[in-house]
Amino acid sequence: MIKAAIFIGSDSDFEVAKGAIEIFKEFDVPFVFEVTSAHRSPERLLELIKSFEEKGAEIFIAVAGKAAHLAGVVAAHTICPVIGVPVRGSSLNGLDSLLSTVQMPKGVPVACMGLGKSGAVNAALLAIQILSLKDKSYEGKMREYRERMASSVESSSKKIKENL
Ligand code: RP5
Questions:
Q1: What is the Cα–Cα distance from 112 to 104, expressed in whole angstroms?
Q2: Nearest CA owner, ligand 1 atom 13
Q3: Minimal-distance CA residue to ligand 1 atom 5
Q4: Which sequence spans correspond to the domains of the chain?
Q5: How far is CA 121 from CA 16, 63, 118, 127, 146, in A?
Q6: Where are the beta strands (DSSP E) in the chain?
Q7: Which CA distances in Å does 46 have to 41, 75, 126, 145, 152?
Q8: Atom from ligand 1 closest to the CA of residue 69
Q9: Neighbours of 152 (CB within 10 A)
Q10: Disulfide-capable partner of 114 in 13, 73, 119, 150 (CB 3.0 to 4.6 Å)?
């Protein structure tokens, strides 16, 4: 059974999506990944959502740029939580995708992350925190992840101070 699904709207979004993929791998979250577009392959997107729900997906991540409909369209077709990651790269430098993802009209929520790879990393971490409400097996790894982060802040402070 899978737990999560990651969609990207175009192969050009892949670099950003790697942030989420790496986190899911690190936490051993069984996930599926597909390139599929809300406007270029709308029927395929609906089929994938349905089939991934049948396979056990409990949460969806949608990574898209420009007029970023992907997360909203996924959210319209599932009652699972949907996390959207806006992608930079347009002539508007991602402001278009950020607003498209964050400004969902009431009734169909999308949890919008920050732009780019950091947003993708946070999308996967938030997905794991949501999955953890039911599946406690991720809690230990999440605590270790936070501890590693805290130590790396400390060691970078030490390193900079050594060279002051
Ligand atoms: C969106 O349009 C995709 O998510 C991508 O970020 C953007 C540009 O797509 P390409 O023209 O690079 O395929 O649908």
A1: 9
A2: 10
A3: 65
A4: 4-131, 136-164
A5: 9, 11, 5, 10, 13
A6: 4-8, 31-35, 59-65, 82-87, 111-112
A7: 9, 11, 24, 34, 42
A8: 14
A9: 10
A10: 119
For ligand 1, what atom is nearest to the CA of residue 37?
A: 14
The answer to whether the CB of 13 is under 6 A from ligand 1 is yes
Whole-angstrom Cα distance, residue 114 to residue 76? 21
* Its pTM surpasses 0.70: yes
The residue type of 22 is: E
**Atom 9 in ligand 1: residue holding the nearest Cα:** 10
Instruction: For residue 68, give both structure tokens.
Output: 């970023």
- Tokens matching residue 38: 């809300």
Compute the chain's Rg from CA coordinates.
17
Q: Which residues make beta-bridge pairs with 86? A: 64
Check if 87 has its Cβ closer than 6 Å to any atom of ligand 1: yes
Q: Rounded to 5 degrees, what are φ and ψ at 7?
A: -115, 140
Tell whether domain 4-131 is in CATH 3.30.200.20: no
Q: What is the pLDDT of residues 46-60, one digit of tens each?
A: 999 999 999 999 999
Give the span between the Cα atoms of 139 and 74, in whole angstroms: 27
Please name the amino acid found at residue 135: D
Confidence of residue 69 (pLDDT cuts 50, 70, 90): very high
Question: Within 10 Å of residue 123's Cβ, how many Cβ atoms?
Answer: 31
